[in-house]
Every structure is written in structure tokens, then in C-alpha cells.
Amino acid sequence: MSEWRAPARLPRHVAIIMDGNGRWAKKRGVPRALGHRRGVEALRDIIRESSDLGIAVLSLYAFSTENWSRSSEEVGALMGLVLEFFRREIDELDRNGVCIRILGDVAGLPAPQRDAVRSAMARTARNEGLRLNIALNYGGRAELVRAARTLAVAVRRGELAPEDIDEERLAAALDTAGQPDVDLMIRTSGEMRVSNFLLYQSAYAEFLFPSVLWPDFDREAYHQALDAYAARERRFGGRQDKGE
Predict the structure, then answer these.
(1) Structure pTM?
(2) Edge-to-edge strand order for the sheet containing 13-17?
(3) Where on this chain does Mg(2+) bind (predicted)?
(4) Which listed residue (52, 67, 115, 137) is catalytic?
(5) Residue numbering of the annotated binding site
(6) Residue 217 has pLDDT above 50, yes or no
């Protein structure tokens, strides 16, 4: 196999819905917890590759507000993996200049996970490399509600007039404040849904739905997605005539 060459046009912001851990485990007749563990291993490689390629922002959908409805055993396993990830990976992430931001309601996480993610954010806050967003206890609609409340409080305090609320101010109240919009949204496992992830930020994103299950999403699959993105013609709602 020839060595892969990164395309000239890479996305600034890649968002990934890491889907398929449970199906990966079911296909192999192993516990779902093992599927999630293998998913974390895939996650490490994609973070490293994104950093090496110079992608500015990588957003990962790790645990949604709806995931609390899963069995207590599965939720417990997922929360355990959150702790394990930060304890095992934080030194390397910090050393490589990765800046971690948690998207979602951090206060609603269990105390050990809450403390771990807040510590990771504080430790890496000044890093200037890859901006790594990890969505935990996150829902896109809930994020928009939080942003609306923030703006409403500013209006009530007299800091902002209602007519001054525009897209820029709304974006500044989102969990991703100060970051570019999503350029490429990937959902593994072939499911064609965004599942309440970065609804505002992905308004003009390019979408890819590879059939590969997340634990099998390796560097080669990631490169294929980046090549597909580079081949897309992005119009942002406009039209590009080609001489017709």
C-alpha cells in the first residue's frame, strides 16, 4: 500500500459521532463494555492523527444526555472509561499541546468524572495545539437552551439589548465559543443521524456516514474520510456556476 498523502485542503474542525461500539461487541459475542473499551483505543489513534495533521479542532461525541437511560451497568462502564481515559492520557495530551474542552453539562456528571474533566481542562487551558472537544452529558438542544439563558440574563442586567442579539453573540454563548464551525461531520457505523450533536455548529458541515464500526475506525478509514472531504465542493448555501 502506498503511503498516504494528506490532501491540500483539510477541514479545520472535524466532529465525530463515535457509533457502533455495542454492535462491534455483539458481532464478536463479547460484553458491550469491551466494545466501549476498544472504542477508546480507536479514539487515541484519531486524536494523535488529528494533532499530527494540524487539524485545528476535533470534537468527539462521547456521552449524550440521552445515554443516562441505558442500563446502570453500561453507564457505569462508560463513566469508568471516562476516568481511565483522563488518568492514562492526560500526560501525553498535555505534552503534545492539546487543549481540552468539555462540551455539555459538566455539573451534571458524577463527582469523580466532574473533577477529572475540570482538572484536565485547567491543566491544558494554555496549550496551543489541537483543540480537543469531548462532549459529555451533552445535547445540542440543551446547549442552545443554555446559550439562550445566558443571553437572556445579559438582557435582564442591561448588558445587552434584544435587538443586538445576532449570530455572533449566539455563537459566543455556545460551548464551542471562539472555535470555527464544523467543516466535516463523521458518523461511523452507517447510521445517518446527527443525534442532537452540534446542531448549530454543523449548519454547513459536510457529512460522511462510513459503514465501519467505531472500534474499527483506524487511521486508514480517517484518511479516506479526509480525502472524501477534500473532493467535496463547498457552497455554504450559494451556487457556483461552471460555465453553463
Answers:
(1) 0.94
(2) 99-103, 131-138, 57-64, 13-17, 184-187, 206-208
(3) 19, 206
(4) 67
(5) 19-24, 32, 36, 64-66, 68, 70, 187, 193-195, 206
(6) yes
